[in-house]
Design brief:
This protein is an alpha/beta fold. It is 48% helix and 12% strand. The structure holds zinc ion.
Length: 243
């Protein structure tokens, strides 16, 4: 961590002062986002940053970004994350660790099966409209229990509590009519990918997301996290994303 009399620390100190001045004048979160651009300024740069961070993670070279008192203090006034990520709550899929990202860089929604629901959608709309993120990622993962539950027969699903049933039913449409795949692991992977594509298509049916994608502010992409290797596969091209 550079000291404050270190010339390299000056731009950061200047920025902090400008943000503090803005706060004193009653600046909103949007005003602060105008002063401090996020670390990545385009969808393409955001994708590259996530790919690079994941490569550091799975190759054992994670930098585990600094979370010193200074870094925390610099963020009190506002946040400028560059990507919003809808991921599963699974304890093996900690998003910031998987992408080797630090405080203030990712805006994360985590819910079992990475399904789009009312609150999650509102959260993503906030990230797009007020935080000016440049990328929205729906990330599924290997061995997802929620997706596995959506593959169970109806009588088994009906045994679950009401709200859990509702969640499973948000995944079911994506795994119905799957081609027969004998290998259980390959079948699960296909089901998870189908669910990612399904949730992406739901997001893309929403006006705020459509407008942000049409204007070039954001791209909506999918991703698949492999627990065993730590590697993330990205679904970026339209043919990869088609449900
Ligand atoms: Zn899961």
């Amino acid at each position: 961590m550079p000291r404050m009399d270190d010339p390299a620390a000056q731009p950061a100190a200047d920025l902090e002062r400008r943000i503090l001045d803005a706060i004193r004048r009653g600046a909103s979160m949007e005003d602060i986002a105008d002063i401090k651009e996020s670390d990545e300024a385009t969808p393409e740069a955001a994708i590259r940053a996530l790919k690079d961070g994941n490569a550091r993670f799975f190759s054992g070279q994670a930098t585990r970004p600094d979370v010193s008192a200074n870094d925390r203090r610099a963020q009190i006034m506002g946040q400028t994350p560059y990507a919003a990520i809808l991921a599963c709550s699974d304890s093996r899929v900690p998003v910031e660790l998987v992408f080797d990202q630090g405080l203030g860089q990712l805006f994360v929604v985590r819910v079992a099966g990475n399904v789009v629901g009312e609150s999650g959608l509102g959260t993503l709309e906030y990230a797009i409209r007020h935080l000016d993120v440049h990328l929205v990622v729906v990330m599924g993962h290997e061995a997802c229990g929620a997706v596995a539950a959506a593959l169970l027969p109806e009588e088994r699903v009906a045994e679950e509590p009401e709200h859990l049933q509702n969640l499973i039913r948000r995944i079911q449409p994506s795994v119905q009519n799957m081609p027969p795949i004998r290998d259980k692991k390959a079948r699960m992977r296909e089901a998870v990918l189908n669910n990612v594509r399904h949730q992406v298509s739901i997001l893309r049916s929403q006006t705020v997301i459509q407008q942000a994608e049409a204007s070039g502010q954001i791209r909506v992409i999918g991703a698949y996290y492999e627990i065993g290797s730590g590697a993330v596969d990205f679904l970026i091209d339209e043919e990869d994303l088609r449900p």
